Target: DUS-like FMN-binding domain-containing protein
Amino acid sequence: MILAKEFNRNEFARNSDLSISTIRPELPTIAQFGSNSPLELSRASSLAAPFVNGVDLNCGCPQSWACAETLGAALMEKRELVRDMVIATRQRLGDDGWGVGKEADIDNPKGKGRSVSVKIRVHKDLRKTVDFITTVLGDEHNRNIDWLTIHPRTRHTQSSVPINLEALELLTNMFGDKLPVLVSGDVFTLSTLPYTSHFLQLQPTFASNADKPESNKVPAPGNARLNLPKLAGMMSARALLANPALFAEYETCPWEAVDIFMTNVARAPLPLQLAIHHLTEMCGAGFGPDRSALLSKKERIHLTELDNWIDVIDFIDDVKESRGIEPVVRSTMDL
Ligand SMILES: Cc1cc2nc3c(=O)[nH]c(=O)nc-3n(C[C@H](O)[C@H](O)[C@H](O)COP(=O)(O)O)c2cc1C
Model:
């Protein structure tokens, strides 16, 4: 979540909050903003639009500082304001010359299609969520948002409590024909989802799973799982941090993901502590039933004590060698 007001006013905030991949420009990027003002959100979106494929409004962040500023989940009580923000943003992007025709602009010939979307939590009383979505959506034949992501927990539900599947089923059934509805929450591994949907039968888009060991393949969906035929996609946060190969159907983080991450950090440096944080997440036990980890707890602690990137590379290479794993040959061609 990028704070729109700060993004608009401060070049340092813009540079530190938004960076994009120039290595794989075909991968879409959505910039998500925190805002409570139609003018601020539309200005921030206008500034970000040349570099991203769409903008999203965060109506789900439960942190107290955000809610105190009427940002994030506090917006779940301000449905008209959210509607006004997305209308103003769509208008501004259209005025700037971007294609905001939703499905009609997915294959915009000049690559100028831009989406406007919203991520929400649910209310304890789901009728309020239905009212919220109905208001923000507007005219369903000319809707105000491209898609909606639902995190089926209330603002006060701990992330240790499973997502509310009944709420997800009701809301996807109700709105899934009107716009694409995505779910966020408890996407831990593709094989252990408590629901199934048509798109889960499709091949992953972002990475090849051709070389994956048989043991890592996703089993066929069980009959017992709730079918959500109108669910259009999924978002993962905690489990994806631990296993960036999740959507390529890996049950746990493979060494290859660590190698790709390290190569990318060499190409586009991150602050060392941030890079080490990602490595400890990827090398720890993930969120699926397989609790195995690439590094032991002692090794992860050692990793956090390193103070330069060369030592990090040497440490990872040494661990891999001690386990008989092929080292990655890093050539200047890679870099
Ligand atoms: C480290 C971290 C950062 C997050 N940042 C954002 C954010 O910027 N915007 C947002 O909408 N949600 C954010 N979330 C919430 C997630 O998008 C997601 O809704 C929530 O964690 C539940 O999904 P999960 O079970 O896949 O983690 C964040 C979650 C985590 C763990």
Remarks:
- The chain has a mean pLDDT of 92.
- Residues 2-185 form a domain with the TIM Barrel fold (CATH 3.20.20.70).
- The longest helix spans residues 79-95.
